[in-house]
Amino acid sequence: MSLPASTAEPEYLDVGTGSESRRIAMRILPAAKNSSLPAFVWLGGYRSDMAGTKAVELERHAEKTGAACIRFDYSGHGLSGGAFAEGTISRWLEESLAVVNHADPQRMVLIGSSMGGWIALRLIAELRARGEGGRIAGLVLIAPAPDFTSELIEPNLTDAERASLAERGYFEEPTPYGPDPNIYTARLIEDGRENRVLQGVIETGCPVHILQGMRDPDVPYGHALKLMEHLPSDDVVMTLIRDGDHRLSRPEDIERMLAAVDGMITA
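The structure assignment produced for this chain is given below.
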């Protein structure tokens, strides 16, 4: 029997070589014996980690249903090594692919929260490019933030923030989610331009369920509507939560997330 989510010891995976090497912490819950369910793969948000409420509740749900569950921390996050300031979408995507390759689930449902939604879309594109798109059984996006650097940050930069990017290579922004400010680097923003997905038709080849709060101060719900416009060929459902915030971690929000995941595995 697997250990409860709160006590399971993490595994570690080395990603990259030389100066780019970093140690990625993972928690992989194996599927129940004879289970044919797709694995749940959690992709967290910017500065979030695999110990967050939604990630832990997802694993608990996997235990109940018999599905495998894969959680991990990007470099510079949680228990993983590497410097946060060196993080980019490309770097975190590389780590996501490495974890998926290591766990090697035959089929999987990706659950991406905030920035994790962007990573999930890029991950699917990479898998489809190598002929493995059929491994994706479904995609659940929670307050998805694809292209957030170019769509939500760059257009709203102040003169002081632009000067800080030019002079120091980063700028800081207060956040209500903790005492330390968010740090956005020039490297992250430049790399974000190379990873944009909201430029044409996005083909996932799987059902998609988007959960979006209408009181989200970080990712306006109009951004989720824009994403939906780029998914014309997929079976897409969007749930707009009138009083929902960005985190969507209340008990009722968790229930919506798990119901969306269940919808993918019974489709």
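Interim note for the steering committee: Strands lie at 11-15, 22-29, 39-43, 69-72, 108-113, 136-142, 170-173, 182-185, 208-213, 236-241. The mean pLDDT is 94.
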